[in-house]
Specification:
Elements lengths: L10 H16 L6 H8 L3 H7 L3 H21 L9 H14 L5 H4 L2 H9 L4 H29 L7 H22 L3 H17 L4 H6 L2
Helix pairs in contact: 1-2, 1-4, 4-8, 5-8, 5-10, 7-8, 8-9, 9-10
Protein name: TetR/AcrR family transcriptional regulator
InterPro entries: DNA-bd_HTH_TetR-type_CS (IPR023772), Homeodomain-like_sf (IPR009057), HTH_TetR (IPR001647), Tet_transcr_reg_TetR-rel_C_sf (IPR036271), TetR_C (IPR011075)
GO molecular function, one term: DNA binding
């Protein structure tokens, strides 16, 4: 017996998905309600049935983004290594692996929106800030364990390094946009990896075993 066809995504879901792509490819200010409706293949009546404004959609899109990326990172392979230093480095490697496709495929919705709206739309600014800080917080435990093992006397905090990783990654995305492709971002991520390696120096015996 043939399975019934899967139901089409709701118009609300299509608008949220469209917002992720359109805001990342066009920018928040340049994206119109018409652009969003066209990308989602819905009419304006459907748009305003679900969202009273473009900003309201953007706020929900930020939550949608956080849920999607949160699930992706929670299941990512960088959690597997037993050693905390290796987990932190594997996180950076994973971020490098995500630099695939067009700019709108790998750049960050939160960073894109907050660069435009930090002064004009405080609700969007705060939502993006919360999303960035919550993601950074997922790294703090591994960084803290790595610090305790490899750099116990260092004067920086795990929280500050976790936030720095996000600053470096957002900067990598800006370079990718400025240069029109992923190579500049990949180079920046490689520098981030080398910097983190320097913060957690291996003992001499471990260095000799490293190929």
């Amino acid at each position: 017996m043939a399975k019934p066809p899967a139901p089409a995504a709701s118009s609300r879901q299509r608008l949220l998905d469209a917002a992720l792509h359109e805001f990342r490819s066009r920018g928040y200010a340049a994206t119109t309600v018409d652009d969003l409706c066209r990308a989602a293949e819905v009419g304006k009546g459907s748009f305003f049935h679900h969202f009273p404004s473009k900003e309201a959609l953007a706020l929900e899109a930020v939550g949608h983004w956080n849920a999607m990326t949160g699930a992706l990172f929670a299941q990512a392979p960088y959690h597997a290594p037993a050693d905390p230093r290796e987990r932190v480095l594997a996180y950076v490697d994973f971020r490098g692996e995500l630099l695939q496709g067009e700019l709108a495929d790998f750049t960050c919705l939160l960073g894109t929106i907050v660069q435009e709206t930090y002064d004009s739309h405080p609700a969007l600014r705060d939502a993006c800030r919360n999303g960035i800080e919550l993601h950074a917080e997922t790294l703090v435990r591994d960084i803290a364990e790595a610090k305790a093992k490899y750099a116990p006397d260092a004067g920086w905090s795990p929280q500050s390094l976790a936030l720095f990783t996000q600053a470096a990654l957002q900067g990598a995305f800006i370079l990718a946009k400025a240069q029109g492709g992923a190579p500049a971002a990949a180079d920046a991520v490689s520098h981030l990896r080398r910097y983190i390696e320097s913060l957690f120096p291996l003992p001499p015996t471990a260095k000799r075993k490293t190929p």
